[in-house]
Amino acid sequence: MSRAAFMTRVRDAAAAGRAYRVHVPGNLPARVGYQGAGHDPVARLAAEVTAVGGQAHVVENLDAARAKLAELLDALAPRSALCWRHPLLDRLDLRGLLSACGAKRLDHEALSPLSTPEARAAMIEADVGITSASYAIAETGTLVVEAAAGQERLASLLPPVHIAVIERAQILADLYDLFARLEDDGTGPAPSWLPSNLAMITGPSKTGDIELTLTTGVHGPGVWHVIVIR
Questions:
Q1: What 8-state DSSP symbol labels residue 170?
Q2: Which of 3, 58, 65, 158 has the smallest C-beta neighbourhood within 10 Å, fewest atoms?
């Protein structure tokens, strides 16, 4: 590739990236700084999830979230689901929803008694991963996942479909708020409050390694649903 062609690609990519810059009202005084995600973090999160290739489902309450999750499971007809143990998923009665659609629930409790090869085989065969998240970042449509016992990262990484359920209290405006919240939730001076494993998920798995052609679902889920409870 010639230098001119390379620089043209760089300029085109930079121009496309400007669509994701933060836009602020023109009448703000000069001293006003970063504006984050705007006045409606739920709507912004849903819009950004869609923009990065996911499917956002904004619902008003827990009952509506349960109905939407049941609808997705009926459409997917999974044989098994790799699941988190999480208070929000318990409130949704995830166990009952999976039982109703005939899917086997694979969580920490179910997998722990298995040998390592048996557990690995069961997880690889899972058709869908169902999680919540520690936080969600509205400005970028990002889920923040802290790995823990019962909340293994593989649930969001291994199955071909990932469904995450988020409620309003988990949504942060922007990345600056995330690190402030992590420090508030942790103990001791930084960086002791950082979790041992922190991942940020923005959209389904994508790669452009091969001839700069964007391909979805190569290194992780190719389908990404986020149910947002307003």
A1: G
A2: 3
Beta bridge partners of 148: 151
Say which CATH number the domain at 120 has.
3.40.50.10420
Beta strands in 14-63, from DSSP E residues, in sequence order: 55-59
Q: Is 58 inside a domain boundary?
A: yes
Q: What is the spatial distance between Cα 219 and Cα 212, in angstroms, rounded to a whole number?
A: 16
Whether the upstream peptide bond of residue 159 has omega within 30° of 0, thus cis, is no
Residue 194 has pLDDT above 80, yes or no: no
Residue 81 falls inside a structural domain: yes
pLDDT in tens, 82-122: 999 999 999 999 999 999 999 999 999 999 999 999 999 99
Quote the domain boundaries for residue 164.
Answer: 36-229
pTM beyond 0.85: the answer is no
Residue 51 backbone class (left: φ over 0; alpha: ψ -120 to 50; beta: rest): alpha
> How many domains does the chain contain in total?
1
CA angle, residues 68, 69, 73, in degrees to nearest 5: 120
Closest by alpha carbon to 163, among 58, 63, 77, 54? 54
Tell me whether residue 76 is in a domain: yes
Residue scoring higher pLDDT (22 or 67): 67
Tokens of 8: 């043209």
Q: Does the residue 160 lie in any domain?
A: yes
Residue with tokens 């990065």: 52
Which single residue is written with the structure tokens 């001119």?
4
The strands making up 198-201's β-sheet, listed across from edge to edge, are: 171-172, 135-137, 142-146, 198-201
